[in-house]
Structure formats: C-alpha cells, structure tokens
Amino acid sequence: MYSSQLLKGTYQTIILKLLSEHDRMYGYEISQKVKELSKGDIQLPEGSLYPILHKMQEEGLVQMERVSIGKRVRRYYSITRAGHQSSKEKLQEFENFVRTMRLLLSPKTSMS
Fold first, then answer.
1. For the segment 101-110, what is each residue's pLDDT rounded down to a tens digit?
2. At the N or C end, where does the chain have fewer CB atoms within 10 A?
3. CATH-assigned architecture of domain 4-97
4. What is the number of other CB atoms lying within 10 angstroms of the CB of residue 56?
C-alpha cells in the first residue's frame, strides 16, 4: 500500500482513465476496480473519492446520472468530451513525470 500523500495527486488521473474505459461507473464500483487492478496496493476511500468526483463534475470532466434501483438511488458517473481530453493530457503528464523520476532516482552508473 502506498502513502496517501504519494497518491493524492494521481486519483483524478486514475478515475478519468477508468471512466474512459467504461461506459459509466458508480462510486463503489470505481473504488473496487482500483483496488482490483492494483492488487490492493491502491485503495480509493469514499471520503476521498466523492469529493474528487464532485469537483470533476463541477469542472465538466464527468457527468452524473441518478438511477433508481429498487428503493435505492445509485449515482453513475461517465466521462465527458472534456474529460477525455483531460485524461489524455493527464496520462501524458504522468508518463513524463514517471520518466523524470526514474532519471532522478536511478542509481548513478558512472562517476562524474
């Protein structure tokens, strides 16, 4: 499991990536998929997930649809066109960041 401080900046990117690969997902489903794909190394608690989803909705990156299931109401989230664009940008930014971190943190191979 990774520290919440390390993960905090990646949650939105993770959520956008998941939603870009699925038609729509509800909150618990998102958190379970993150846990499953990361083999339990990353957990997205509800206390973090829903504020992020609400902020993303306000920014026009996702849209929310309420669906009645029996007596319950489930909120489904889907990615918008702006969300798809943001997802591409955030994934590229993250790949560049990882590449830079590898350069910075890799052991030096020769003495300078």
1. 898 888 776 5
2. C
3. Orthogonal Bundle (1.10)
4. 24
Cβ neighbourhood burial of 15 (10 Å; 0-12, 13-18, 19+): buried
Residue 4 CB neighbours (<10 A): 11
Cα angle: 86, vertex 90, 95; to 5 degrees: 150
Closest CA to 77 of 61, 92, 90, 96: 61
Is 24 in contact with 65 (CB distance < 8 Å)? yes
Average pLDDT estimate for 46-75 = 94
Total number of residues shown for the chain = 112
Is residue 16 within 8 A of residue 86, CB to CB? The reply is: yes
| d(C-alpha 67, C-alpha 76), whole Å | 7
Q: Which residues contact 33 (CB under 8 A, 6 or more apart)?
A: 18, 25
- The helix/strand/coil state of 57 is helix
For the chain, the domains span 4-97
Q: Both tokens of residue 43?
A: 């957990």
